[in-house]
Amino acid sequence: MIQSPPTRFEALVLPHLDAAYTLARYLMRDTHDAEDATQEAMLKALRNVDQCRGDDARPWLLAIVRNTCHTHLRRRGTGRGQVSFDEDLHTAEDDARRPDTALIRAADAEAVRRALDALPLGFREVVVLRELQGLSYREIAEIAEVPVGTVMSRLARARDRLEQLLGRMRGKEGWG
Amino acid sequence: MNCDDVRTRLDARLDGELAAGEIEAVDAHMEHCADCKALQERRIALHDALVREMPRFAAPDALRQELVRSAREAPKAHERATRRMSSGWGLALAASLAIVAVGSWQLATTRANGEMLTQTLLESHVRSLIGEHLTDVVSSDLHTVKPWFNGRLDFSPPVYDFAGRGYPLLGGRLEYVGERKVAALVYGRRKHVINVFLWPADAGMAQGPPAATRHGYHLLHWNGPDFTYWVVSDLGTAELQEFAGLLKDADLAAAAPPTSQ
Questions:
Q1: CATH, residue A13
Q2: Per-residue pLDDT of chain A in tens (176 residues, 90 and over written 9)
Q3: Among the residues of A79-146, which ranges form H helices?
Q4: Which chain A residues contact residue B54 at CB under 8 A?
Q5: Mutation choice for B interface testing from A67, A90, A101, A128 by most B CBs within 10 A
Q6: Are residues A11 and A69 in the same domain?
Q7: Residue B49 and residue A112: Cα distance in Å, rounded?
Q8: Residues A163 and A109 in one domain
């Protein structure tokens, strides 16, 4: 095997491998699926590294990861998980009961994980890109392929739902 | 600013994304509105909990090593292939490289099909405007339009009413794209007509460019979780994008999250 010096890919893209994998974990919600998607996305990034402009490859890479995850989910999509409506999630929006701020603040890792898992994909991805990756609305808009205004409204609705999910739980058994 | 104004801006305010001119008004409202103040506190509590409890994951070492290996092996072979395909006499050279030849042929075919589809839908849109046949079922009631498709299509298209957002439902009709019967939903925006063509995402139909402009009409195309969408109108791109965003959001809200493991 010919060993060359570190490539542009290694210098620019590979440092964001953990960020890529983390996004895939949240979108795919499964370790193996996340690994598959990350691998495919990284190889895609390797092939197209010339298209990455600027010094910060992270938003560019995350866009590839996001699209790869969507493709994987869509491919296996239709048959699986077609519970047509989550009643609890729906009524949560109209619920007059105000979620409890102290409960939200005290949420533990398991509660946060379950609340995030319960979010529709498009809401979950904006939350992860914002809260975990700290990306700007504009960067998120480019990654999610929606206008900035849609990023804003999705974030707001996603957070409303998370507050409802976390702020109405009564310990472990509150998920019925 | 009233509470609704503030609520639509609060997230941007907290995320440091609000236009400078609006910050003061939001903050001023917060001073004397207990409800909005409470919402702000919940948002801050949520942010704290998320930042504290959302794990970051480390990619498997094996994957990292494999990528380093690929990166160091790949460039030469890859550059060679790219050069051949993009050069003017690429096809002649590629004849000796069966894989490259097949690959570029498929690419060309896919593009041609996408362009044909774009043209077909554009013609459908224009025909719907000049003829009498804009709608088979005329109704702004989604509970009238949606059942109308029963028995006429082998799928049930999602129908929404965005009248509250300025995009009222006008009706629906059947269209043929090639051999395939597809749903056409008609929405309005002021005097403009928006045709929404959709069919199941797994129908094996050609894909097109995500956005295109032909003869002054704009076309947007995307694949939702269940359906492939094409939206055609003479509306400005910004508004058409906004409308597409509404459709995507409505699909999201309707799609249930698969049960978590």
A1: 1.10.1740.10
A2: 444 456 789 889 999 999 999 999 999 999 999 999 999 999 999 988 888 877 789 999 999 999 999 999 988 764 344 333 343 444 444 455 789 999 999 999 999 999 999 999 999 999 999 999 989 999 999 999 999 999 999 999 999 999 999 998 654 444 43
A3: 87-94, 101-105, 109-117, 121-127, 137-144
A4: 112, 116, 128, 131-132
A5: A101
A6: yes
A7: 8
A8: yes
